[in-house]
């Protein structure tokens, strides 16, 4: 069963939408913005470092896909210099998917569809020292507790910027 949006909040009547997709070929490589990508069951995003087993956290606790919301990014931008704000907009948060019209907390424990792919929420993804090594000082502090989450690919499919999110449970 797919719930119509909004399923629980009167405050947020926006339909959740995928606003950006970022991938990197390997650990430490620059994030690249793409318009469409294939999510691969139990692997990740085609061409991304974690699906290719080339991510920094691969041997410890890799995420198949990472997700952050525009709300999280907006919080991270508060009281930051313009340079850092611009870097966050260009993917320096190093998360794969950016969603608008939803708060990260609303995805906790949920299975959801974006495009023709199905994902499930796994856990928060706190920022780490490696992020600052790759992207520069200030990002860990800026992101704080609003640094995104890990999600798992439950069913393969294609996702495209502009696709809406549908909660399935």
From the alpha carbons, calculate the radius of gyration and give it in angstroms: 15 Å
Number of helices: 5
Order of helices and strands: EEEEHEHHEEEHHEEE
Question: In the CATH hierarchy, what is the architecture at level 2?
Answer: Beta Barrel
The CATH first-level class comes to Mainly Beta
Helix percent band? 10-25%
Q: What structural class results from the helix and strand content?
A: alpha+beta
Low-confidence stretches: 1-10
Q: What general outline do the C-alpha atoms trace?
A: globular
- N- and C-termini, Cα separation: 7 Å
Mean pLDDT, to the nearest integer, reads 82
Instruction: Describe the strand arrangement of the main beta sheet, using strand numbers.
Output: 2-1-6-5-9-8-7-11
Q: Which strand-content bin applies to the residues?
A: 25-35%
The description of the largest β-sheet is: 8 strands, mixed
CATH superfamily: PK beta-barrel domain-like
What is the number of independent domains?
Answer: 1
**Structure summary, number of beta strands:** 11
As for the CATH topology, it is M1 Pyruvate Kinase, Domain 3
What's the arrangement of secondary structure elements?
Layout: E1 17-23, E2 32-34, E3 36-40, E4 44-45, H1 58-61, E5 65-69, H2 70-77, H3 82-89, E6 97-100, E7 111-114, E8 117-124, H4 129-135, H5 139-143, E9 149-155, E10 157-160, E11 165-167
